Each structure stands twice: as C-alpha cells, then as structure tokens.
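During the reporting period the student researcher (J.K.) took over the structure-prediction task from the postdoctoral fellow and processed the backlog of single-chain submissions. One of the processed entries is reproduced below for the supervisory committee.
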Amino acid sequence: AVWAPPFRRTEPQTPDTQIPRMNANYGTGDAAKALVQDEASAPTWTYGQKVNIMIFLCLCCLLDGVDFQLLPSSFRGLEMSLNISLDSLARLSTCQGLTLVLSCPFWGSLADHGLPRRAMMCTGCLMWGAFTILLAVFDHLWAMTILRLLNGIALGMVFPVMQSIIADIAPPEQRGRLFGIALGAQNLGVTLSSRAATSMSTRIIWGIDGWRVSFSIVGCVSILVGISLFLFMVDVPKPMRISEINLVGEIAILKDYLKIPSFSVIFAQGIFGMIPWCVLSFLIMYFQYVGFSDGTAGSFYMIFTLAHATGQVLGGYIGDGFWALSADHGRIVVAQLSVALGVPCVWLITSVISTDTSQGVWYCLMLACLGLVASWGGSGCNNPILSEVVSLRHMARVYAWSYALQSFCGMVFAPTAVAFLAERFFHYKSDDQDIQDMPPRRRQMNAEALGDSMTYLTLVPWVLCFTCYGFLHCFYPRDKRRAAENVPDGALVEGSIAQGCPDL
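J.K. obtained the following structure tokens:
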C-alpha cells in the first residue's frame, strides 16, 4: 500500500479514515479546538475530482518555478543590456521576496476563512502574468523594482493556498507523494526557465533583447493558466467566515501552534533550509564565468533542476515508505539523510572541481547527484508533518507563515548575501562586456568569487538545518503521545524540554 499510485480508485472516502489524525486537544486555544472539529467536517473527494485538482495545482506549481528562475536566468542579459550591477540585480530579487513575505499570511487567512481558493489562485496567476509582461517593457530600475514588489504580492496569493488544498484532499499516508508531485512540477518549471531563458537572455530576437521576449512569453502563459483555472478547475470550498478575521485572533492562533515543539522546529528548519536553494540559482552565472556558453550553462542547470524535480517526487515516496517503517522517526531520518548527502555534492561543485570547461562531465554528474539526493526534505518530511499537527481549518495560513519565513531568508537574504560576499570579500567585479571578451584572469576571479560565496551560503545553513531535524526526533513522538493524552499547552512544551528525549 505504501508504494501504490498517488490516487486510488477505492474512493470515496474521507481523508482521515485510514489513519487517525492528530485531533486531540493541545489546550484551550482556537488551534486546539479546530483540531478536534476536523474529523467530522472533512469532505469526500472522488478520484476524478482529485485528478482534476492535482492537474491544475501542478500547472500553478510549474508557473511558480518558471517565475522563481526567470530573473536569475536573465541576470547576465540584464547586466549587459541595462548595465545593472550584481548588487542591483540581487535587490530586484529581494524586493519580490519582501512583499511575498508580508502578503502570504494575509492571503492564507482569507483562504482559511472561506474566500474561494480557486478564485485566489486564478487572480494570482493573472496578476503575476500582467506584472511579468510589464517587466519586459521597462528599462528603469525603479520601475522594475515596483513591478517586482507587486509580483511578490501576486505570488503570495498562490503557493500557500495550493499546499493547503493538497492537505485537504489527501490522507496522511499519501501526502508525501502528492506534495512530491507538486514540488516536482515546480522544479520542472525551474528547469524549463533555466534552459530557455538563459539561452535567450543575451541574444537579440527580432530586434528585441532576448530577456524581454522570455518575460513576455511567461507572462502570457500565466494569464492563460489563470483563465483555465477559473473555467475548468474543481473548487475546494471552505465555510465562509470572513467576518471572523481579526489580527489579534491570527496572532493567538500562531502562538497556540508555536507551543507545539515539533511545529516550531519545522519553522526553524525552514529558515535555514531555503537559503541554499536560492543561493544555487547563481549556478548559471557561475558556469557562464567558468567559460561555458549560455546554452551550455542553461543545460547544466536544467540537468540539476530535472534531477531536483525527480528527487522531490522520489522523496515523497521515500518519506511515505519510511513513515510505514517508523511513524515517529521515519520521515525525519529521510530529511537528515537528504541534507547529509547534499553537503559534499555542493562542496565538490563549487570548490573542488577546477573552473575549466574541460570538467563539464564532472559538473553534470555532480549536479545530477545533488538534485536527486538533496531534495527529499520538503515532500518527504516537512509538509507531511505540518499537515499532521495543524488543523485543516488553519492549513492555508500556517503554510503561508512557513512559506513567508522561508522565502524571507531565501529570496530576501540569499541573493543579497551572495552579492555582498562576492563583491566585498572575494573580489567580484561587474562588467558590461560579453564574458567571452573579458580577460581570462578577470573571468576566473569572478567565477571563483561566486563559487566561494555559494559554498559558504549552502554548507553553513545545511549544517544548521541538519541540527534542527535532530530535535524533531525528540519532540515529534512526544507531541503525538501527549496530544492523545490531552496535555495542556504549557505542559506540552515544558515537559518536552525538561524531560529530555527518551525516544532516541
């Protein structure tokens, strides 16, 4: 049963009939009450409805991945055509990440209080499509900055809502694989964007800068997907409770969940875990400075993102398999194993393999290994565990909080940190020349500067991430047992910390 296809034709059934959900009371707060109410209110989904929902969710994830990689894939084209420094390019990424962080919890709360999630996803796709097309039109940095800020608001409307829908339609033993499929689709979008946008970014197409053409194409496709969502996707409704929204209540719910140690650890892990993946978006620029052509650099990154997409789907299945072996520790072991295998791969790519075009085969091999093994944490551990300890009524806003924190550290901190380290400590110098025309020494210095920056900003966060997962071995089994015993909030937290970790 663990290795069955993502959907079974033994529907209809409620999502929680096969394996009990953590529905015991964590205390007296709103989060605790909602956990108790979830069992009776869970809807029934047919096989066809699930397939319809997952198809459109995967389309949205695909577009989210395309948008995530579109700007990094065009860094060199923007640097050449608009004479924008690496620091300014990093600030463009930071602007989008900032508004994404600020808007995610707001949209998540609206979704949990009954605002139609299909309409929210449709609106988000239409908005980010329009803003992406406008980005292709403007030349001024201030205008592009404003559009990136607005684009972050549109993105915040979509991704957390998608994750909450998956948690609604899937039982616990299938959530890993469904999260894996969705995240795999997202990385397929990164793959398509990295290959196509990179090869187009520095070219002139019909007298137009190639990066402008790629931005326009992505914007048009986003608008078409938004229209398709509105016309054809099955909606996943929630009871309308918009009048209940208030800031004090939202903060109280978050505080209620933060009293669950395993929930807090997942949050802390996400803060560190997102940084390396955003840092690795500079790999394309790194390979360009090594001396590979734009097309070859895009192909290398495509290999990495394809392997990453495959690894996330694989991680979902591996997580479900280890969950069957040990419901308390299986998913956590998968996440720690993934981090431990990813660290040496990054070190070899950015620090050991020489910056020479003759090493292309080794780059391809290590990029494929990195993508396959370092991507199991989200689908195999984080998302399934969150869906077990969080009420379905609060799922969208909790994923929004989690996504906001991760995105803040990834999209806001990572690009700025790479630019800061490369320029201030490792002697990176921006240049509007074509890379092939640059002096070999300057090109090699820039490649080494980017490589050293990426090394520090991937290895250190991943070591911290591995450590955070270790605490889950202590807290997650205890949280489940104490939930079944109806232990009050304070005792749950204080007891977990004071009494140690007898489960290890």
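The committee noted the following: The beta strands are 204-205, 208-209.
J.K. will present the remaining backlog at the next meeting.
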